[in-house]
């Protein structure tokens, strides 16, 4: 089997950049990584890519909140579509993701969960890897539903969650719910017992209730500032609580639509880079021209990178490209490449408990690798060592 080598590469590490280095991919892993002066002689049969010290090599990005792309949605309950979404994500520099569901009638959620379980067991290696499921809803608050269909919203129910988790073959990794609707935090306790990330989202909890939920095990906040009670000087709300509590990770959609870009500086000051997670919240319109698309059975109009549910006027996900999100945080926060990687990859891996495999470049880790060209665009993406995308 051929080994793939990147030579004369500027490799972004956790603590800086290794200029003029080399990286070897073998059997889906990073087999070697060092300075070019230590590179062994390469055989003719090896697959050698000379980066010519142009651009940078970074770890693959991880999108933990993504509903769909290029006309497909994970709620379509079709594994063939999932592979197409995963293939598209590689073009954005995403090498792994959590397939995100949404509030819909329970039979539709069940169908999507079952289809995702089938896909997970047979997913190809040459596309972005699905790491599991992000269950967004249906256990949310009607008053903060956003684009989630109100008729399908349910009270948190441990038995129903157990049923969904069984149908998923136990691959639900993150659940977005409204803890103020969760009597005695029964669902929250169940999530914690199973090692599933509990996220507050689409929630109208007051500050005190949010703090109680965090003390009980909430460690994540879904799309910060959106679908949650905001900050008021007499009630810091959900947003204030998750910003103030050090252990909570916060999702950010850096598109200057879901919140003003200057608020990123506030988030950085309050959370530090270690608890910030860049997501896209992408819908099926991602990678498609402006027009009208469906989300949760409702029409969504996409114009100039803004997705609006026609029925309610609510924001309805995004069409944000993950690499564009990376470039936005670079510009708006003046972040180094290592800092950017932390927000788009390493933090996600740490939070998911897979930092021994993903999130940074080191010998023994998965060969999830992106080569950015001199313009910061994705030149090549490797998923588990296989070429998943190449700029034409």
Polypeptide structure, described:
The protein has 392 residues and is an alpha/beta fold. It folds into 2 domains: 4-58 and 360-390, Urease, subunit C, domain 1 (Roll); 61-352, Metal-dependent hydrolases (TIM Barrel). It is built from 9 helices and 21 strands. It has helices at residues 79-91, 106-122, 158-167, 186-194, 207-216, 237-244, 263-271, 322-333, 337-352, and strands at residues 4-13, 16-26, 29-35, 47-50, 56-59, 61-66, 68-69, 72-73, 94-100, 129-136, 172-177, 197-200, 220-221, 249-252, 276-278, 291-295, 298-303, 306-309, 369-372, 378-383, 386-390. The strands form 5 sheets. The protein has an 8-stranded parallel sheet. It has a 4-stranded mixed sheet with strand order 3-2-1-4. Strands 5-19-20-21 form a 4-stranded antiparallel sheet, covered by helices on one side. Helix 3 links the parallel strand 10 (129-136) and strand 11 (172-177). Helix 5 crosses helix 6 (237-244). The longest helix has 17 residues, at 106-122. It is globular, with a radius of gyration of 21 Å.
